[in-house]
Specification:
Blueprint lengths: L23 E9 L2 E8 L15 H14 L11 H4 L2 H11 L2 E2 L7 E7 L5 E7 H31 L1
Antiparallel strand pairs: 1-2, 3-4, 4-5
Length: 161
């Protein structure tokens, strides 16, 4: 009996291209102490005429996800938030550090949404208006000024010794 080597080529059932299909991926949505919460996606193309096993390549999956994120649940195109073009990277990083805050899609609401740790129950969503952000900025400046005064007082005390 002769053994033959065979080659198996997988194709994307969405675009027809040769690919390594994406079978499963996950997105981390939060942490609860030592546990990670994630949404797990099992990827498969479903169509009425399908005879294959629903393989989807990375490019087709990205295209579908980007479209879905852009259109939202309504299926209509939504305007981009312009967060990347209108806010500096350091400011966006500060908002991420405060609780993964980002702009809401409803521009007229003038809000960002993020996640705050509320003690025992873990993270909960929070919406901050533009007015609240301005008040918080004033609070940050107040705390920074206090830290500077405290350090100057400590320096003066060290010199007096």
């Amino acid at each position: 009996m002769k053994t033959e080597a065979t080659t198996r080529t997988l194709t994307c059932d969405a675009c027809g291209g040769a690919c390594e299909p994406v079978r499963r991926f996950s997105v981390v949505v939060g942490h609860d102490r030592e546990f990670v919460r994630e949404i797990v996606f099992d990827v498969r193309l479903v169509s009425p005429y399908q005879t294959d096993d629903g393989d989807v390549c990375d490019a087709c999956l990205r295209k579908a996800l980007e479209y879905r994120l852009r259109t939202g649940a309504s299926g209509r195109d939504l305007k981009p938030t312009c967060w990347e073009r209108g806010v500096s990277e350091p400011a966006r990083e500060t908002m991420r550090c405060l609780g993964a805050f980002g702009p809401t899609l409803a521009e007229r609401d003038r809000e960002v949404k993020g996640w705050l740790n509320d003690g025992e129950s873990g993270a909960s969503s929070a919406y901050w208006s533009s007015g609240r952000l301005r008040a918080m900025a004033a609070h940050f400046v107040e705390v920074a000024d206090w830290l500077d005064r405290r350090a100057e007082t400590a320096d003066d005390a060290d010199r007096d010794r």
